[in-house]
UniProtKB/TrEMBL annotation:
SUPFAM superfamilies: NusB-like. GO terms for biological process: DNA-templated transcription termination; transcription antitermination. The gene is nusB. Gene3D superfamilies: NusB-like (1.10.940.10). Involved in transcription antitermination. Required for transcription of ribosomal RNA (rRNA) genes. Binds specifically to the boxA antiterminator sequence of the ribosomal RNA (rrn) operons. This is Transcription antitermination protein NusB. Keywords: RNA-binding, Transcription, Transcription antitermination, Transcription regulation. GO terms for molecular function: RNA binding. Belongs to the NusB family. InterPro entries: NusB-like_sf, NusB_fam, NusB_RsmB_TIM44.
Length: 153
């Protein structure tokens, strides 16, 4: 379970950097099979983490693998292919976005989607951001309907 209820607010830039590093670490975890502790230690040694929301980075990096099966089950209905047919980058972005959508209700759904789109534009294939947008938008309609309806008020 996430620590969202007790999480202190941090700057959008610090969270954006946390997401970026978490995505890279999750990608490494997916393709290498290395342990999360080793990957996290490597990221902390090799990168300037001074302007990163450290707790958010940790929450995503450890939360996504812990919830992997549940997250995969949540995104699968909105995919046009099997999970193993997604690129590793797309899969990591979708899992990260699904984790935030389902476990970080302190982050508005529009922010979750927009941040995932930006990650896909930076790290993904051409037009991969459109696919990520479509999948996470459908997931938001299922997971954040109260928030979506409240915003249309």
């Amino acid at each position: 379970m996430s620590r969202a209820s007790g999480h202190q607010k941090s700057s959008p830039a610090a969270r954006r950097k946390a997401r970026r590093f978490a995505l890279q670490a999750l990608y490494q975890w997916q393709v290498s099979g290395s342990g999360l502790g080793d990957i996290e230690a490597e990221f902390r040694t090799d990168n300037d983490m001074s302007k990163v929301d450290d707790e958010y980075f940790h929450d995503i990096l450890h939360g996504v693998p812990k919830e992997k099966s549940v997250l995969d089950d949540k995104i699968q209905p909105f995919l046009d292919r099997r999970l193993d047919e997604l690129t590793p980058v797309e899969l990591a972005i979708l899992r990260l976005g699904a984790f935030e959508m389902c476990h970080r209700i302190d982050v508005p759904y529009k922010v979750v989607i927009n941040e995932a789109i930006e990650l896909a534009k930076t790290f993904g294939a051409t037009d991969g951001h459109k696919y990520v947008n479509g999948v996470l938008d459908k997931l938001a309609q299922r997971e954040r309907m109260v928030e979506i309806r409240g915003g249309k008020g």
